[in-house]
């Protein structure tokens, strides 16, 4: 995959826009453990005069809370015992851009550091940066695309919340996969999302209906890994904001109902820092270079151990179902959508698509894991088995993905290669996050339990 990235908003242009009063607010944000944007809205003038170079503080608890922003025990980097001190959001000015759907607003993605300037090692963006540094040391660059699916509902978010997210009306009444007519009902919203993202520097390619009712996928052009992951965060947050402006809501959760879930397929390709196509070899099996074959072999060998990075919530695992287009088998194939890893493209565009992640994934962690797994294969010269031909769901002798968050957490904890790639502090931090999620779910009384037990048990 080759092509230019999206240009940022130039610093001199921001200065001009702030001076003219056209930009009065700059959002400084980072992505938390759950993949959400967190940060502050800063006066445009204050950002230009001070914050752009100095950074701005935020509480360290933001990387040590559950989904509800409740403080929870078990995190070494932030707790009541440490006093929940500050981290510093340091703007990465290469990510500066306008946010067209929020008047007078620009946004910049920040890296997290401590007061002494050392990195916050458990920050998702920092975790990915370290894997990209490993690639750079080998003269390699990763190009990545993420494909998020979502379901649109006719009710706005506050109404959806007030109803406990029950009884919502999807924006279509039937399967709308590739359907032009049924998707036209959503087109005013979808168009505003597309145009908004284009104005924010993302390169829109296509939108299509998906299998579930009200389900859509908007595709954006690949870019270098860090750029794509930053764009992913902006898109996911912005799509919700734009839906709310339309009086609608949308969800990226991996499994909203018993029908098809929301995926986030991730495409990865490597190239040399000189632009050379290191994955392509016209004389190799299936047009794959030996490096590419080892890269895919490494991903395949490490899928189970890294599943926690691809499927981080209880709900993630309900998406893994046979004959659902979500994978269950540890298999790779050539343009085979029943496999966890699907090799697609030809020549310099050849790449591997990981079909494991759902829409609830933290993209930085998932891409970091895919690169770490691929490097594991390259460094050891792993041999790629023959591709799966036919239905991977029916392979009796094929190893399977873990089926619960608890299983994935054990595999993550026990993996020497995960600890080697990510470090002990990162492993401990994200294991605690999984345990917090498990404890919260185990304490909850669900509608399923009430329906089964209220009268009949």
Automatic annotation (TrEMBL):
Domain GS catalytic: 124-457
Keywords annotated in UniProt: ATP-binding, Ligase, Nucleotide-binding
Entry EC no(s): 6.3.1.2
Domain GS beta-grasp: 21-117
GO MF annotations, alphabetized: ATP binding; glutamine synthetase activity
GO biological process: biogenic amine catabolic process; biogenic amine metabolic process; glutamine biosynthetic process
PROSITE patterns: GS_BETA_GRASP (PS51986), GS_CATALYTIC (PS51987)
SMART domains in the record: Gln-synt_C
Family note: Belongs to the glutamine synthetase family.
Protein name, entry field: Glutamine synthetase
Gene name per UniProt: glnA4
């Amino acid at each position: 995959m080759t092509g230019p990235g999206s240009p940022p908003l130039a610093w001199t242009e921001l200065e001009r826009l702030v001076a003219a009063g056209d930009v009065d607010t700059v959002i400084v944000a980072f992505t938390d453990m759950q993949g959400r944007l967190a940060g502050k809205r800063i006066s445009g003038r204050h950002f230009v005069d001070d914050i752009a170079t100095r950074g701005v503080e935020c509480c360290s608890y933001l990387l040590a809370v559950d989904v509800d922003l409740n403080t929870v025990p078990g995190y070494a980097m932030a707790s009541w015992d440490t006093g929940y001190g500050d981290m510093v959001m340091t703007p990465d000015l290469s990510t500066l851009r306008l946010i067209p759907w929020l008047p007078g607003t620009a946004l910049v993605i920040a890296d997290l550091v401590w007061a002494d300037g050392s990195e916050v090692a458990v920050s998702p963006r920092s975790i990915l940066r370290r894997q990209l540094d490993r690639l750079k040391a080998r003269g390699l660059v990763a190009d990545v695309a993420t494909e998020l699916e979502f379901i649109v509902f006719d009710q706005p978010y506050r109404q959806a919340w007030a109803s406990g997210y029950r009884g919502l009306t999807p924006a279509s009444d039937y399967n709308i996969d590739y359907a032009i007519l049924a998707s036209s009902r959503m087109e005013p919203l979808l168009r505003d999302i597309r145009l908004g993202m284009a104005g924010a520097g993302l390169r829109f390619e296509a939108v299509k209906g998906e299998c579930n009712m009200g389900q859509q996928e908007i595709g954006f052009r690949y870019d270098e890994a860090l750029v794509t992951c930053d764009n992913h965060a902006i898109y996911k947050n912005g799509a919700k904001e734009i839906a709310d402006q339309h009086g609608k809501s949308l969800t990226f959760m991996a499994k909203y109902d018993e029908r098809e879930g929301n995926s986030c397929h991730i495409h990865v390709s490597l190239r040399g820092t000189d632009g050379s196509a290191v994955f392509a070899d016209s004389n190799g099996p299936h047009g794959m270079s030996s490096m590419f074959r080892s890269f895919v072999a490494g991903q395949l060998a490490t899928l189970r151990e890294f599943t926690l990075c691809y499927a981080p919530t209880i709900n993630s695992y309900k998406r893994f179902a046979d004959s659902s287009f979500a994978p269950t088998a540890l298999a790779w194939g050539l343009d085979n959508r029943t496999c966890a890893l699907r090799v697609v493209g030809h020549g310099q565009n050849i790449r591997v698509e990981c079909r494991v992640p759902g829409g609830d994934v933290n993209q930085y962690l998932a891409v970091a894991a895919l690169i770490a797994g691929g490097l594991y294969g390259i460094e050891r010269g792993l041999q790629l088995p023959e591709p799966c031909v036919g239905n991977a769901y029916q392979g009796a002798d094929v190893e399977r993905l873990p089926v619960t968050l608890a299983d994935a957490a054990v595999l993550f904890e026990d993996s020497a290669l995960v600890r080697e790639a990510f470090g002990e502090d990162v492993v401990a931090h994200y294991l605690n996050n999984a345990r917090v999620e498990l404890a919260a779910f185990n304490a909850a009384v669900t509608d399923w339990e009430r329906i089964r037990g209220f009268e009949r048990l």
